[in-house]
What does this fold into?
Amino acid sequence: MDLSSINPILLIAAMIAAATPILLAAIGELVVERAGVLNLGVEGMMITGAVCGFIIAVNTGSPTVGFIAAAIGGAVLSLLFAFLTQVALANQVASGLALTLFGLGLSSLMGQSYVGIKPPRAEATPLGPLADIPVIGPIVFGHDLMVYLGLGIVAGTWAVLKFTRMGLVLRAVGENHDAAHALGYKVKRIRTLAILFGGACAGLGGAYISLIRVPQWTEGMTAGVGWIALALVVFASWKPWRVLLGAYLFGGITQLQLNLQGAGVAIPVEYLAMSPYIVTIIVLVILSADKSRAPGSLGRTFHASG
Amino acid sequence: MKFTTLVASAALALGLAGGALADDPTKVGFVYVGPVGDGGWTYEHDQGRQAVEAEFGDAVETVFVENVAEGPDAERVMTQMALDGADLIFTTSFGFMDPTINVAAKFPNVKFEHATGYKRADNVSTYSARFYEGRAVQGHIAGKMTESNIIGYIASFPIPEVIRGINSAYLHASKVNPDVEFKIIWVYTWFDPAKEADAAKALIDQGADVVLQHTDSTAPQAAAQEAGNVMTFGQASDMAQYAPYPRVSSIIDNWAPYYVERTRAVMEGTWESVDTWDGIPTGMVEIGEITDAVPAEVKAEAEAMIEAMRTGEYHPFTGPINKQDGSAWLAEGEVADDGTLAGMNFYIEGVDGDIPQ
It folds into this structure.
């Protein structure tokens, strides 16, 4: 065992990179679920975002434009879900699963001629002298823009849900759509906007994998991250900061266990491999002992005449 | 009147269907563990499937299902294929072993071919390639080229096939470079680009300047390219898009001749349950072009080794070799037998760490 071979600064950077896609997808889904909609299509929207972002970034040479395209791609796909569930009043679970399958197929079709291409590199955010501070600099200030954007979205979501009228209305729609409707709020419109936000966030998360974490395009490359993000929302009791904690725990321990394996730590590999799941679940279950519960109208179809 | 027309046309349709059944094409199914676009393992199996189509044209019909999880899902997919009239089904991942045996027992008239497993039945053959021959070449090049003397290895599951690869690579790396150290990370997946890339980065961060992979995607190649000074080898497929560097050579699985031959056996009614384990001599294992990033002298040595394996002169596991605990395995000049290799569950002397149980 040789722990000195692990460089803590590189490890933390890798942990953050591993956490960011889950964080982005989960915070988007959190908003969708707080509005009372269960969208199981996160995986499909992520992979669509991954391929859209990749294609545009390669063609324009700009990762930033790629990320914008990824958000648009994810949102456009989620619009399909919004149409099915909010207009056609289809079952949300079935529509969400269909969205995942559709997204996986669509992305492999779109990405066919992009296999093996190297995307343009996303540079670290220019924070000037801050990044030069020893130890803290590279850990806190040495990341790409998406890492900070992810944190910003979490903070923003929390603030909006907690302190603003918009957040209150969104939560009302999620808790009891009939009451919200009776008060004159446009349930379908609000939910559609929430679904679009969720799609955009999932798209960003997917593009983070294809443009920064891997970086390349491969079919099916999200490999289940969307499902982990979905589970995380539940374990985090639909609370933004807990989603952040869960994503960083999960991403962080995933990285840590890979590094510990490489360093030859004498813990059996099986335990290391399962540790991200176990630790994340335990921590979030303990936190959710405070009687948090799902939004009241979660997963229920709303019909104005009903 | 209308009703009779309907009956008549139904009868006609039935008749036509009956006629079509008579010269039914041979239906061949493929069950894949990853997507056909993974650029590695599944990609090569799909190349084999396409070779079958090209060979027999309209006389065969091939179907495939990709991204099949190793577990109950696999059984469902195989059952569906058999119900849909498949005559021959190739299941192309180690984890499909028990599902294949289970489904084969229910469909005695359908032939099954399971890749890399060891369980057979009257209608189940197994086939695999001696990837460890390719690993020997990789180990030799890696041992010669590493400057940090740390070689990273991304391992998938602790099964004999993967352990053989680690042993073969280590044996040949340490032969030319006694200081070499292997860092092994088990990722417990065949295909998860993000995780494969993370594992590659963890190894690189810990000083590895050569990364070997036993997973299916090209993600570790991309991670090595990003790092800049790290060498890799294509796995299962050529992965030539990362040549000449980081990818300096590759192991290519060429399943096409086998798939064509087995499909022909089913069409001609000569199919029998067999156990095939071919390597470099028959071309089932190919070594991808060694690029100019490798010095000419090292390249020549590697090519001499490939040639010696092709002619059967050299076996990668030739003694003296000790097991990890120091006990003797093969005596001087002794060659490993296929039975031990097929069930290999131990590291050879010099490899650090334990195999997950």
Q: What stands out?
A: The CA atoms of residues 208 and 214 of chain A lie 9 Å apart. The two ends of chain A are 65 Å apart (CA to CA). Chain A has a mean pLDDT of 89. Chain A touches chain B at residues 5-7, 10-11, 14, 18, 21, 104, 108, 111-112, 115-118, 209, 213-216, 218-225, 254-255, 258-259, 261-264, 268-270, 273 (CB under 8 Å).
